[in-house]
Design a protein that fits this description.
This protein has ten helices and eight strands. By secondary structure, it is of the alpha+beta class.
Length: about 300
Amino acid sequence: MIHPVLADLQANISGITRPMVAQTMLEAFQGGVAGYYRENDLQIPIVLRANDINRNDVASAQNLQIWSPIAQRMIPLRQVVSGFETAFEDEIINRRNRKRTMIVYADPKEGLATALFSRVRPKVEALELPRGYELAWGGEYEDSGDAQAALAKTIPTFVVAMILVTIVLFNSLRQPLIIWLCVPLAIIGVTVGLLSTGQPFGFMALLGFLSLMGMLIKNAIVLIDQINIETAEGKELLPAILDSGTSRLRPVAMAALTTALGMIPLLLDAFFASMAITIIGGLVFATILTMVVVPVFYAIFYKA
């Protein structure tokens, strides 16, 4: 940074102040806004500054012309400045949460940012930071965390609403409990699918899991409703459970298969791949386990 040293006596005689000197140098090297030009709905600033030859030559600062209110004319800047000092300053200071911050940007040349992040994160976090320094991750990782935190605030409300709907639907507590005990089974398929493909459990995967919950609840409702129909017709409980599982196997399996096939085109998309894998893996595994676990739970709860 070049700092002009103002000669106070000469400056006072000419009626020149420090802000006037600063403004003169700013307009000469960086430029000052003289007005605005309107083009449709845009305001384009008109910048007034010296030509490139003078702006690239620091020595030309002594020859800058500054307006003297006392003399009522332009005078050279060297008449009111005794010299120039050179000092090092941080021209741009980045702050984050009111703390000085050094930001490092990185984009992968190929592949996904999540894959690069998984490789770089352990090495960066293994570095020993000096006292007073701390490390924080931004970019896609931070955006995904913020989105998941915002989503986590509303998820409990809708889960409670879904539980109340199933309770009202069956007018009991045991049957909704059987349905919701089957939901965690989807985690098995989701885990296998994501680990086998190397996809992270990010925001899109979380959305896929929420969608998967509704599909699994639907399958369990279809099976339990068929059991209730069979028992209402006077059939014994255990034969009703077996016959319901047999009769509902095809529609439930076909619904799960068509949904999984509909997700296949999304596997080629980098943004929706994790969501598609979550739905496909969780739905296929959970459907198979649901057709086994729901009848077993029903028989245990009702002591068939």
